[in-house]
Amino acid sequence: MDFTTLTIKVLKMLSIAGSYGIGIILLTVIVRALMWPLGLSQQRSMRTMQMLQPKMKAIQERYKSNPQMMQQKMMEFYKEHKFNPMAGCFPLLIQMPIFILLYSTFMSPQFIQMAGDSQFLFIKRLDATLKTSAGVSHDGIFGVSKDDTFMTGKNAKVYLQGVEEPLLNVKIEKPNKAVEVQGELMPGEPADFKISLDNLNLKFSQLDQIEKAEIDVTDIQTKESEKMTFVRKDGILISTIPTKEVKPAFHYDVLLLIALFAVTMVFSQRAMMAMNKNVPQDPAQQQMQKSMNTFMPIMLTFTFVIIPIPAGVLLYLISSNVFQVIQTVIINKQLEAEDAKKEAKVDDADLANAKQIKEK
Description:
By secondary structure, the chain is α+β, with helices and mostly antiparallel strands. Helices cover 54% and strands 18% of the residues. It is elongated, with a radius of gyration of 29 Å.
């Protein structure tokens, strides 16, 4: 079982009342909850770094003419204060594979065929991107544009000569590249498709007996799927299907998701900045941090406008940002309580060690 199939099964299990949108939100909560210790470590590391910044800067200034010695002193400084400067990067490094996995899942033929047209709140399709062509699946006609590309499902139903029962769930090798358009794709005219027999995971003796195969074919651009019957001709399987022209559609619900992502990201970064409001900071570094907090949401939002990100992935990112804000507030209060206890212990120790002055 590959990771895409596993992710779809997890989403299906988490989908309350058949809502994959709820499944995505619950998956987000589970992932972020499992990462809570890392989040605590990240915020503690950031807080420690801000407090130690003046001393770190002093070391850099003192040994700026000797980079090797400066590096050694900085390592000793980190070890002395039990500080790992890379601790803040771990949550991001873990989230990136999850983001890529979700992106691959929502763009996969399995999800498109099973739940691509799922709705949630104002979201019309969880697999929709900002600008796509609309197609109606399983109507026997492919809605296409001239430059569309296609992929097959993961399995095929294969009929062998002289055998009554077909072979079910025959694995198709490399579904993204298995099917090709024969000739030029002209919207409104029948389209010819071909699949090499080598793409079917069967024994050589079975390949020689193939008569026909039923295979799901998906238009990658429109997300439309059609079940097509391919017949054998020499060493390939061929099929023809009527087509009609479709025009790209702009999905305002996805645009709203992108805007919500930008808003929640701003709140998330403000929560992180508020965490260090009582910690002394270098003015130059503080200004740089403010610039980054302004630039990052703008850059990512612009990127999501250009790069086709499925609505389901945006829903995950928004849910993750909301969870991040809540987590930051809770952990910040926890760290403030820890600092208060430390200060109380120091005050108690000073009071206990203070000399008593006797009256004369």
